[in-house]
Amino acid sequence: MAAADSQVLIGLCDVPIGKSCTSTFFTNKIGDLPDLLPAFSLRYPYCAICGSALVHVVQVYCPLGASRYHRTINVFACPQQQCSGKTESWKVLRSQCLESEIKAKSDSQRMKVKEPPMATSDWCEGADDWGIEEEEGTSASPAHNHTNTQSSFLPKLDVSYGLQALSLTEAHQSASPRPELVFPESVPIFRPYYVCVLEEGDIDEQTDMEDAHRLLREYEMREGVAVMQLESFEGQGELERYEKTDAKHGDKVFSKFMKCISLCPKQILRYSWNGSPLFITDPSSSLTQTVPPCSYCGNPRVFEFQLMPALVSLLESINSTSELLLEFGTVLVYTCRDSCWQPGRDSPAEEFVLVQKDPDHQLFSRPC
């Protein structure tokens, strides 16, 4: 169960990432190629089922509040039809580094740049300006020109690993060049978009409500179930009731899923570190056994975020001559509770992903 004061962050699709824009590992985005941390190397992931190169789905910058590490998570999936909806065809990679490592890498690259010979005029008019241009040239700068809506997913982590609070802050943009990436030939790429972030409690109740009510009415008519409002009972907390006990497909979990996202049906991502996931189908009773402990330190993994059905319609290939197929109900990402990391590590750590199929594909297949 999530802590009582847990907050949920909502990710929404923002403007496309244009050719003139750049991104770094600080950037929350859909599609594109992953941005590696400085001095990192990536052995590009392949599908465990068919062996095809995976496509990059989302990148989330999500440092833990009590940690000194920058932290980015990249999610990949296989776009082949025979692998659609299968957990084995997805991969999640977590990358971390310290600010000192970024600075060291930047300093190392500046040392390799050959300084031009000093002219005699440098001793004259510009003598008092020594160092100013260099400092300005190496100061932190935004990774792109869209920082007004770029927020990071920042859960607060205390020594007992409890989720205390969540905050939305602009990621500090360090001046670090994009690492050289080597990819296999014909890597599939989804069209890139920025992701903006807001707290679920800040969503205007009137936002998209007309569309939400339409979807709910269609669902209720088709499934013969009326989704009732949550009602509070003193001493019992919030209980959810339904006019009929079962939908036609017998999935009350899906009905709850629809109710929860109706306030913001266009959400593409829900973030709640160490919180409770929103299941689209009934999870197995042995879910705690399904999610394995961290393969690096042996500690338990916790839920961190999930991808939502509205993301499916946004995943389009940048190549108009090729079609990339990726369908899912929701994708649940679980990561090491301690976010363990060995100093000096230069490659991402693989985390656990669980894919749930959409029990009612037609409901989410309409464009937003």
UniProtKB/TrEMBL annotation:
<dbReference type="GO" id="GO:0006915">
    <property type="term" value="P:apoptotic process"/>
</dbReference>
<dbReference type="Pfam" id="PF04194">
    <property type="entry name" value="PDCD2_C"/>
</dbReference>
<dbReference type="GO" id="GO:0005737">
    <property type="term" value="C:cytoplasm"/>
</dbReference>
<feature type="domain" description="Programmed cell death protein 2 C-terminal">
    <location>
        <begin position="251"/>
        <end position="357"/>
    </location>
</feature>
<dbReference type="InterPro" id="IPR007320">
    <property type="entry name" value="PDCD2_C"/>
</dbReference>
<dbReference type="InterPro" id="IPR052815">
    <property type="entry name" value="PDCD2-like_regulator"/>
</dbReference>
<protein>
    <submittedName>
        <fullName>Programmed cell death 2-like</fullName>
    </submittedName>
</protein>
